[in-house]
Specification:
single chain, 405 residues, mainly alpha, 17 helices
Length: 405
Amino acid sequence: MRGSSANITKFYVSSALGGFTLFHGVLGFYMRQIGFSYTQIFFLAALYEILVFLLEIPTGVFADRFGLKKCAVLGHFISAASCFPIALFPTSYSVFLLWSLLSAISTTLNSGSVEALQFESLRDISREAEYTKLRGRLAAIGGLSMPVGAFIGGILCENIGFGRVAALGGLTGLFIAAVYVSMNEPIEVQLARESLTAQSIFKRIAENFRFIKKDRELTGVIIAGAVVYAAYLLINNYSQPCLEEAGIQSYRIVGLVSGTFMLAFAAVSWWAGYLTQRIGAKGIFLWLSGVPILSLVGLGKLKGTTLLAPLYLSRLGEGVAEPVISNRLLQKSPVGKSATLLSTHSLLTSLVFSIWSMASGYGLDNVGRFLTFSAGAAIALMIMIWNGRWVVRTNDLNSPNQAGY
């Protein structure tokens, strides 16, 4: 249990380091500056999500079967390695395609495994009720370090070039991987993993879908959560390229603006657990469903510097959505199967976003922002009305669910 307690401190350290990848604060803007079209930029995002869709559940099963820590370490190492090809060939679209491939592999290895490792580390020391608070604070710490990293990255891009900044980001990623190497696997996860040695991956995946199918609430959470996450992913991918339309041309200003986006995200993430209890289930549902839809509408109608308003609003919504939705999923997951369940949610998110992203990239290049984002907002609204009532239930916002497969 001492090891699990030490894990919590190391999660804070890794979150702080994650803000200093440097080039992410100017990446989308840089792509526009070197001539990539919206179709090309959104295709990179769509390719990434399609690969995530294909790899998500197998990597989740890998994490549950062979260890959450091992999966997280491998994922962070590949993420760091993906930066170096860009550093060598910073203007090659084919290299960015390779980066998208490696990023998808690293994301699926980390997706579910990191959240599950955090939750199980807390459960190992009987503090699992603090998960929402931990997730919010981790997001807030990352959100506080990212503005600094984004601003520094913008300055460095103007002085030493984007390629060298990408290399520095890769070095930071290697440090994060080293932090995960030093963590301990929670005891309950080790015991659960031993009981899985005779099960095949395909059997495990089938069990996972049967479990979800039986639970109507869980199905609703996964579908509605996927739409919310996909909307924020779409807005995040658009947030830097559209700064050019807002009249911003300097990398350091782009880095500064990207940093303030993360400050907004950090501020609300830190208080996510408190807000969840304070405003109740109905308030959380209105926040989760309303903010991304209003942000999309704003991006479609506003011009110039007013485009920043829906971008900031989106960050505020995302800061609450991430810890609330992941907590709802983890509370309904039995020990040893949490990574697989979270991976299923990420899988659906990837499917929704990949389709949405390709359609949006084509729409932005051909029919404009208004029709593109208005159509997306309308479809998201219909899906949320149908499934969103299950996202948060008053009777189990913070109580563990011991349901099994």
